[in-house]
Write a structure and sequence with these properties.
Layout (H helix, E strand, L loop, with lengths): L3 H11 L7 E7 L16 H14 L1 E2 L2 H9 L7 E8 L2 H14 L4 E4 L1 H6 L3 H11 L22 H12 L4 H15 L11 H9 L3 E4 L12 H19 L5 E3 L11 H9 L4 E7 L2 E2 L7 E3 L10 H11 L3
Parallel strand pairs: 1-3, 2-3, 3-4, 4-5, 6-7, 7-9
Antiparallel strand pairs: 1-8
Helix pairs in contact: 1-12, 2-4, 6-7, 6-8, 10-11
The structure holds zinc ion.
Length: 320
């Protein structure tokens, strides 16, 4: 794969131990059995094994909560990193966890409790509805507010357009629309794509860190302050009731600073007793980074970008 020696040299230069340490938090959602055109960014289990092998070789991998605590006290080892998963997909339990365990690598799973209890997230209902439709997908006339590409468009583009437009609609709306799309194109029994509570507890029992990711995966900025607080406190209590331990780490749904959440939500997360929170801004954390605004990076080498160049660019940017 990549030149790991060069990656280590870059890491040693820009991410030494102590006060100049940088923390690279890799953000994943799913691990797939085989490639899926509707989930193009997600690795297969073969690709994820390669990622873990590379990350484990080049970095010192720590659980997210511990890594941020050590970052704050200038006590990170050189080339520190974390592996995180958002949402709570069943394949985290069936495919990702065994790969991580085999390599002896820790990871943190941020769980949207309501999605686990429901069994599926709204966006996956949309994907499954369009992907499984025989010919052109059936989209009810009631939804004429949706701007869709014409019917000759690739299904993956229709999915992308639907997800883009539904993401910022009120939670109950987007859930109802997704259910109806699924019912009209597939059937009435919703699939289970998320872990069960037992699986989440099993990951915890096997030593993986479980963090909060709200209950219903809303865009926090679209909610009233009371609703946002309930989502944050609710997932803290959910994780505690499922695993028996209070979570210390949180991840903001969708996660873009200023777009999906703002300073009010940082404060709510702190008030709820979490010690740290991850967003989805691209970058590396350093000592001065707020523990409630920890940026992350994705496995950019899967998007055709050079591994060492991407690593160098991320480290250099953290010094600008
Ligand atoms: Zn999420």
């Amino acid at each position: 794969m990549a030149d790991r020696r060069l990656a280590k040299v870059i890491g040693n230069l820009f991410s030494p131990s102590g006060s100049r340490a940088r923390l690279a938090v890799f953000c994943y959602h799913q691990v797939l059995i085989s490639p899926d055109e509707f989930r193009a960014g997600e690795p297969t289990s073969v690709e994820f094994s390669q990622d873990v092998e590379f990350i484990d070789d080049v970095f010192t991998v720590l659980p997210f909560g511990e890594a941020v605590t050590r970052l704050r006290s200038n006590n990170l080892p050189k080339r520190a990193a974390c592996i995180s998963f958002d949402d709570g997909y069943q394949n985290n339990h069936s495919l990702a966890a065994p790969i991580l365990e085999k390599a002896g690598v820790p990871a943190t799973f941020f769980i949207a409790g309501g999605a686990v209890d429901e069994g599926v997230m709204w966006n996956d209902l949309v994907i499954e509805a369009i992907a499984s439709s025989g010919g052109a997908p059936k989209i009810d006339d009631d939804y004429d507010f949706l701007q869709l590409p014409n019917s000759a468009t690739e299904k993956s583009e229709i999915v992308a357009a639907l997800l883009r437009q539904l993401k910022y609609r009120p939670m109950t709306d987007r859930w109802e629309i997704a259910c109806r799309l699924y019912r009209d194109n597939v059937g009435s029994d919703l699939p289970r794509l998320m872990m069960t509570r037992e699986m989440v507890n099993d990951l915890s029992a096997r030593g993986f860190e479980i963090g909060g990711h709200t209950i219903n995966h809303p865009i926090l900025k679209e909610l009233s302050e009371e609703e946002a607080r309930n989502e944050i406190i609710g997932c803290r209590d959910w994780v505690q009731s499922v695993t028996g331990s209070m979570p210390t780490s949180f991840a903001y749904p969708n996660g873009r600073t200023g777009v999906d959440f703002d300073d009010r939500h940082l404060q709510m997360v702190a008030d709820a007793g979490f010690g740290t929170a991850a967003n989805t801004d691209w970058g590396l954390a350093k000592g001065q980074t707020s523990p409630y605004s920890i940026p992350r990076i994705g496995p950019w080498w899967r998007q055709g970008r050079n591994l060492e160049t991407g690593l160098l660019r991320s480290y250099v940017r953290s010094y600008l």
